[in-house]
Amino acid sequence: MATNIAVENVRKVYQTGKDEVEAVSNVSFTAEEGEFVAILGPSGCGKSTLLMMCAGLETITSGRIIMDGQPVTEPRAHVGIMFQDSTLLPWKTVMENILFPVKVQKRPMAEHKERARELIHMVGLSGFEEKKPHQLSGGMRQRVAICRALVTDPDILLMDEPFSALDAMTRDEMNDALLDIWDRYRKTGLFVTHSIREAVYLADRVLVMTRRPATVVEDLRIPFGRPRDRSIGEKAEFNEICAYLRNLIEKREDSPRRQARAA
Amino acid sequence: MRPGDGLGPKAAGAMAAIWRRIALFQRVLLPLAVAVVFILIWEYGTKLAKVSPLLFAPPSAVWKSLELSFPILVQQSLPTLKETLLGFALASLLGVTLGTALVLSKRVRQALYPHILLFQLIPKVALAPLFIVWLGIGPTSRLSFAVFMAFFPVVIATMTGLLSADRNIVRLCTSLTATPWQTFMSVRVPYAMPHLFAGLKIAVTMAIIGVIVGEFVTAQEGLGYIIMFASSADDTALVFAAIGMLCAVGLTLYGAVALVEMLIQRRLGVTITSSEF
Amino acid sequence: MSTLPQDRREHILTLALPVLLGVAVLGVWQVVTQAFSISPVLLPAPSDIVSSFDDIAGTLARNAWVTGSEALVAFFLSAILGVVAALVLTSSAVVFQAFYPHVVMFQIIPKIALAPLFVFWLGFDSPSRLSYSIFISFFPVALATMTGLNRADANALRLSRALTASRWQILFQVQVPYALPYFFSGLKIAATMSVIGIVVGEFISSKRGLGHYILYSQSHSETAHIFAAMVVLCIVGLIPYGIAIGGERLARKWWRG
């Protein structure tokens, strides 16, 4: 299988005034075609910065990122992206928002309209094509964002904590919706999250990142196959994996819980 | 995309530092460069195109006129400055008072506010001759007209500002059994500051407009009068010099209001942003 | 819409109170001028003003047309020029940084004082008044639009960059819609400034128009005519403002769907 994403010794340093902040410190990993890789870590560990570098939205201080054989230096048209904020343009309808990449990248409108309709149906938003963002709930807006990310049929999907701003129940719904999509369209995906359960539920592999230094400390393969059983969350094995990851993160961090236990 | 791509970490760091320095200067240098280029084009363009210095005086002629007529200009800017300052002060005082009164009584607000809005929207400038009918030709009519022009924005701004306090915080005050005065002073007033200062900036501009239009119509004294006089005497150098003087006055007054706003913002310890226009 | 008796009463009061106040003021005004035999040159009674409408209807209409048409032309031209300038000056970050402080400064300085200069350059008639009015109305639109273009939602801009949108695509497809509310607030200011510009221009350089007529009435001690002309001028002045508000409503509808 062709390697779709290769991150090689990537480092990111920010200059704020006289200080240097190392946001990402020597990260290397690869993501195979069709793999869903979760990047898990606490806030401040550089996971979002890493994703922004893959998206070409941030410069790489040293090292390189190769996507589809080409080093990443700027944003690319064949990459779908989702942010924590659904970022729908408020004056456009759902349909127009989904077709925004098509318009910007000057692709043929007719065939993409068809695809957009399919995607709308898949995420359960049929009938909402002409609504405006302010008429939708947070979960619905992220569903529109998913459709928009997929409308140009990209090979790679980059997702930066897309469900973090949603309430717990909507978040679970969205996780299932994402699994549906992965069953239907097998893409290569990088998914940033700070939720351990979400990472294990969705991913084929989980990369654990810690801060100080901001680097990958574990590359864990998730043993559940695809299509993924929606009830794995209740299985013992699932909870063991989550406990293992939690331990890993806490051991590296000086979390309050850890300190309380030590005391 | 940015300098430092593909270099080693140390070199990239040094380059980024230089880039930031440049970016800081850019904010100041670029507008300055535009101003300098403009003045150069003005000076040499008019000479090249053989434009008559009476029609469009070059900066050198304007400077000469400024030096020559400086005493007259200063003398004539005094009435303008005095009337603007006094007009602005009175308008602000009266405006804040009425604005506060409108907040205190809902019925009075309902009755009076639409009329105040109406007065704000109509071309009040056209009433300058009316003030002459009432108060004759002189500083009194100009001053009252300036107050009239500057008063309404202050009322509206004060009222809007005082009413803009976060409802939840006001509710919190009530539940803490704070007196209306305490709520007013510690919550409504700070929230009103950005709106108030936006209104005061408009009021300063309006006061100047009032005084200048008054000077046009009374044709007695002041920088507006000099501008009119110099235009009819075909002396654009003096016109520009007087305009320059007036701009200095206008910018100083506006700057003073902006300065007070910044000081109060510092005192309150919050960055409350007011609109820029 | 609620039909509780208290809410209904509130609605009626919101409409009735200002009207009642206006009527009361007019009533007091009428009574006072008559009871104290105040000279009509100093303060004409409302009845005098109303009757003068009859006398000078033709004159008022003629002058209203002159002032109104010039104000509208100035308004439209200043709006178009303001938007074009804003687009040009926002097209590049360098250009924006270079010119924005100047636009702000031009907005603050008392441009009103430049009226005699325009008269000097362009003569004692329409072109000077029009250019002057456009000059003072242009800056609010340009400044407001520039500010608005610069305040587009940062997330939307980031998304557009991620989708490889070009500079111009981002400007017209993302920044312009976000700039609309700002544009309209600048347009409303331009609506009032365009009228002010024409009136001040008429004060110093005209033989026609409502501004000139008011000055003429003052010198002939016809104070009632001043008030009558002012009423007509208010109506005329509200036309560009109404257009601005109408445009804003349409834009809001497009936005909200």
Overview of this structure, please?
The complex is a heterotrimer of chains A (263), B (277) and C (257). Chain A has 263 residues and is α/β, with parallel strands linked by helices. Chain A has a single domain, classed as P-loop containing nucleotide triphosphate hydrolases (Rossmann fold, 3-Layer(aba) Sandwich). Chain A is 35% helix and 26% strand. A six-stranded mixed sheet of chain A has the order 6-7-8-3-9-10, with helices on both faces. The mean pLDDT of chain A is 90. Chain B has 277 residues and is mainly α. Helix content of chain B is 82%, strand content 0%. Chain B has helices at residues 9-48, 59-104, 106-121, 128-135, 139-163, 167-175, 180-218, 223-232, 236-268. In chain B, α6 (167-175) crosses α7 and α8 runs antiparallel to α9 (236-268). Residues 1-7 of chain B have low confidence and may be disordered. Chain C is mostly helical and 257 residues long. Chain C is 84% helix and 0% strand. The chains are: A alpha/beta (263), B mainly alpha (277), C mainly alpha (257).
